[in-house]
Specification:
single chain; 222 residues; alpha/beta; five-stranded mixed sheet; 6 helices
Length: 222
């Protein structure tokens, strides 16, 4: 249905995936830290050139909209807007946590809850809960975690925790219903099914006015 450039800079992973009709045809990824401002433009240029394309060949650009790193999100959204403006293409906004949850629920396919977590510094995470069909059952929020976190849900549901924030609760949550996945990182490849679905429904965001979903205000540190 569509040729879509997917961009995810919501965490320390800088990721670009090119997909046609919901199938990935190329991926460039770097998880060595927040070097997105240096890497992203080059990665987009290379992934298109390696596939004998330019931005005008695309049907749309999809951006991982957050929550996540404030700086990373700004870099990704700014670059996505630049590509869209330059080539006259629509912009698709993919919820970061939903894409991460889908990458796990599609693999496990169990009747359980899926809880992606993105590190929000200290003992706080950005999180939400999804069912096996990738439908959100608890809204996205910034959660300060401790040993009593999610006790009510864990009493009645098997829950899979994953993402770069899940290590904060791995030692805290000892309930038998708490299960922890290994290295599950944000990636542009996880966005592909959702971006294709949104394109099919023609659900685009305004290129000029779209802002990332920061969830919290930026706090400068030294």
């Amino acid at each position: 249905m569509a040729l879509i450039l997917n961009i995810d800079t919501s965490t320390s992973v800088c990721s670009v995936a090119l997909a046609r009709d919901g199938k990935m045809i190329a991926l460039k990824e770097n998880n060595e830290g927040l070097n997105h401002s240096v890497l992203l433009g080059t990665d987009i240029d290379e992934i298109l050139k390696d596939n004998h394309m330019d931005a005008h060949c695309l049907d749309a650009v999809a951006i991982s909209m957050g929550p996540g790193s404030y700086t990373g999100l700004r870099i990704g959204v700014s670059m996505a807007k630049g590509v869209c403006f330059g080539a006259g293409k629509p912009l698709i906004a993919v919820p970061t946590l939903q894409a991460l949850a889908l990458s796990v629920s599609e693999r496990i396919r169990e009747e359980a809850l899926y809880c992606p977590m993105i590190d929000a510094r200290r003992m706080e995470v950005y999180t939400a809960f999804f069912d096996r069909n990738n439908q959100k059952v608890i809204d996205t929020k910034a959660e300060i975690v401790d040993e009593n976190s999610f006790a009510d849900l864990l009493a009645g549901h098997k829950i899979y925790f994953f993402g770069n924030g899940s290590d904060k609760v791995r030692m805290l949550l000892t309930a038998p219903n708490a299960h922890f996945m290994g290295q599950v990182e944000t990636s542009a490849r996880h966005m592909i099914p959702l971006a294709e679905e949104l394109f099919g429904r023609q659900e685009f965001v305004d290129v000029a006015y779209f802002e990332p979903f920061y969830l919290k205000d930026f706090i400068a540190t030294t």
